[in-house]
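So, can you check what follows?
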Amino acid sequence: LAHMSHEIRTPMNAVLGLAQLLHRERLNPNQAAMVERIQAAGQSLLGIINDILDFSKIEAGQLRLEIRPFDLATLLHKLASLLAPTASAKGLALRVSPAPSGLGPLQGDALRLEQVLTNLLGNAIKFTSQGEVRLSIRTLETDDDTARLRFAVSDTGIGVASEVLPQLFAAFNQADSGISRRFGGTGLGLAISKRLVECMGGAIGVESQEGA
């Protein structure tokens, strides 16, 4: 799977690209609705494909981080713009804290950091029906060439039962069997996030109270 990554993704991207072009044509309402369903189902399938391929790369030891300069404030603004419509559609407030002051430009894999934060915020929005989802960032320590940051995602959602917490970051694991039927997903997002964070020299954890 890790070797076939490109071959699996390319036709799916072609399907989505052609559906997008078709949606711009003069279609009657029924045709437009069908194309929108193709796009939605295609995006959902691409998300599953990406999860499976990312996890297969991690398992095969083929995942490599790309360390480059990036601006944390720009990344956070992009996250807020990307996820605000989903939160707003559910009547939720999405609050993303500004980047800590005095950091300057950072070096790291911004794309993978964005992937982890998108996954955590997306999960928080998915499992929250009212209230808010918040991302806060603070600097734990810095020296001349490194900075250790803490990203915390909190929500007012359904919470996680205490007996489930130890397995939450295991592959293909979801809180209960009804989760995938009700909310969708592969159960790989948190496992991938854990591996990515560890690749960056960090740690990931959870505190939760059921119903809170």
Notes: Strands lie at 68-70, 93-96, 106-108, 132-142, 147-155. The CA atoms of residues 73 and 190 lie 24 Å apart.
